[in-house]
Amino acid sequence: MSIRADQRQPNTDVDPSIDFGYRTTAFQLPGFSWRASWRLIMISALLFVVASCIAVVGLTIGDYPLSISEVVNTLVGGGSKFQQMIVLEWRAPILLGALVFGGLLGIGGAIFQSLSRNPLGSPDIIGFDAGSYTAVIVMILIIGNRSYWPIAGAAIVGGLLTAFVVYVLACRQGIQGFRLIIVGIGVTAILGSINSYLITRAAIEGAMAVGFWSAGSLARISWTSLLPSMMIATVVIIAAAALEPGLRRLELGDDAAVTLGTRVGAVRLGLIVVGVATTALVTAAAGPIGFIALVAPQIARRLTHTPGTSLLAAAAMGSLLLVGAQVLSLVLGILYRPVPAGLITVCVGGLYLIWLLVRETRRQYGVMS
């Protein structure tokens, strides 16, 4: 691998008001290259560090409180057996899951917002989350299987089928982001009705299990369910990194992407599969967690000042948001009663969605520049 830094600074002989951009670094491997600004790299690293520090703080919160020094000592191999059980066996999978799943949701949101060229084009708005949720409900209530692998497979298949339906219905004289979102909202409403029907027709025990699961709680994550998710997540993240150069070219338009040597159909299909897999993995392990995929890429884009949504920055911001929501859930559990992290993200993300809808409506009708 070769790393090359490119310092972009204004020349003293030209107008100093001209912005020549940030210093960039190019990473090159055989058949793969990636260029990023130092601002993007530094802010993404800072977000990951802050998210990790918040996760360590979260390890101290619970019915048996610990100090940060006790947690750090346990993480490096010290501490009593009781502390090791609490930190390593009970709490660590939940906080590590928040880091991983938040990053996956950020990547999925960045992919679909780039493909749709619309900040509203996230999986939970378009309906892919709802498709995964419906498939999991069918697996639990009708088929009666609650094991991880069948649920994960059902979530991925349900998300892909929903993506196929949405794209077929929205693909008329080319795919437009606004039409894709409107069709996705309609499909989400239909799937929501199906989910309600299945839950009302189920036995009380099954309906309660699905109801608690649908709140999007990380509390039930254990190493048994987290390790398979992390194995699949590693493959998904590698695939997303490999497809990101193609995603950047697709943002220029299909004609420009073809001119640059991109196989538009294959790259777009690969990105859709990867994007659906990110949200399906989270849905299978923790239930539907809304609005992280919607919010994280846009906040990251404003922090990094990139022209489009960066997968790296979106993953870092997604990890920070979900870890923050989980720690807030733990604090509320101590002060009042446990609140699933999914409910917290919905409350915060709903306010952001209202603001974004108003902003996009004003821009659509020329109220905003």
TrEMBL record:
Keywords: Cell membrane, Membrane, Transmembrane, Transmembrane helix, Transport. Gene3D superfamilies: ABC transporter involved in vitamin B12 uptake, BtuC (1.10.3470.10). The keyword Transport applies. It is a multi-pass membrane protein. The chain crosses the membrane at residues 40-61, 94-113, 125-143, 149-170, 177-196, 226-243, 269-296, 308-335, 341-358. One of its GO terms (molecular function) is transmembrane transporter activity. InterPro entries: ABC_BtuC-like, ABC_transptr_permease_BtuC. GO terms for biological process: siderophore-iron import into cell. One of its GO terms (cellular component) is plasma membrane. Belongs to the binding-protein-dependent transport system permease family. FecCD subfamily. This is Iron complex transport system permease protein. The lineage of its organism: Bacteria, Bacillati, Actinomycetota, Actinomycetes, Propionibacteriales.
